[in-house]
Amino acid sequence: MATDVHRPVTRTSHRADTTARQADGTPPAPATVVRVDGLTRAFDGRAVIDRLHLDVRAGEFVALLGRSGCGKSTLLRILAGLDRDIEGTVLVPRRKAVAFQSPRLMPWKRVWRNVLLGLPGKPERAVAKRALEEVGLNHRAHAWPKTLSGGEAQRASLARALVREPDLLLLDEPFGALDALTRVKAQHLVDELWQRRGCAVLLVTHDVEEAVLLADRVLVMDEGVIAHEQRIGLPRPRDIADPRFAALRTGLLERLGVEAPATAATPGATATPAATATAAASATPAADTARSLPAA
User: Fold this and answer.
1) In this predicted structure, what is the pLDDT of residue 25?
2) What are phi and psi of 87, to 5 degrees?
3) What is the model's pLDDT at position 170?
4) 110: enclosing H helix or E strand
């Protein structure tokens, strides 16, 4: 069946006011914005996604890990409505947006026009500029895409997603092509935007440290299903030098069949995401590797 849609979602900030209480005194549970039940997607008779189940709550940040070819990006494309040749039930918000690893900017349109690309009606330039200002790129609104750095192009892609006011933001390895320092800045930006906007986020990544750094919940996909779920109960902003962070990272690496690299810490030193580039796990059928990037 084709992808179905929910009714419009009522969004709240991730740091929303919790004064509203249920009869028993507990805050109300967030609404479910994504519901996947028994999803199957096959290519040439081989099920890449096999009776998969998934729920994502309003305002939740979920990261999806897994080996290359396990179906992560296929699942994201289905949620985005780009692949409808499926079996099962998929419920997603009407207002959703996606950002890919490649920014996919139209080279013949200036940055601000790229941000508005695909919006209904005739939105004014000010709409694009507000979104560009939110990602720190308003000063490049009139630039041509070919003049942008990799990080700037990715921020333009994020602005194009945000201008749609999504209830669900889908990110398909958006930092994969960035250098280590630009990647750290982009991670911080996404974290800030998520907390400010309050939309649900599903991030597909190969980077275990990135998943633990950003997500409320990390899912590991294997053989077409969600094989493991790990809730990340660490306070924000997160410190990668925290032993609890390291334990979560190690456990997820082991789930992916990757031996966690040994790390050396300087006594009394505190590493933060702004000062330390990410350590990534990139697992493929041919070889499982763990990648550690040097400190910035």
Assistant:
1) 59
2) -120, 150
3) 97
4) none
